[in-house]
Amino acid sequence: MKKIILATAMSGVVLLLGACATTPKNTLAIQKEKNQFEVTGIGKTNLIAKNNAVTAAQKTCSKSTTPVIVDEKTSYHG
User: Fold this and answer.
1) What's in the keyword line of the UniProt record (predicted)?
2) Residue 52 domain-assigned?
3) CA distance 31 to 34
């Protein structure tokens, strides 16, 4: 009985830690003046963050348009 309770508790801890380790891929696009949008990309690496930002820009605009990076800022929170 103790082994079942211990296994259940350990799997609960693993699920909680797994949920904390994931990063969201969906970002919002904020419309600025002159029909420009500000998007934020979140990722483990700089390249993943840029790809997530481009994906958010493509979801906001039509697929036939090409996003252009006007300004770029990188910050680390960890």
Assistant:
1) Signal
2) yes
3) 9
Cβ neighbors of 43 (< 8 A, separation 6 or more) are 23, 49, 50, 51, 52
Statement: residue 5 has pLDDT above 70: no
- Which position has the token pair 């693993």? 14
pTM: 0.54
- In a domain? residue 13: no
pLDDT classification of 15: cutoffs 50, 70, 90: very low
Range of the domain at 37: 24-70
At which residue do the structure tokens 């103790």 appear?
2
DSSP assignments along 59-72, one per residue: HHS-TTS-------
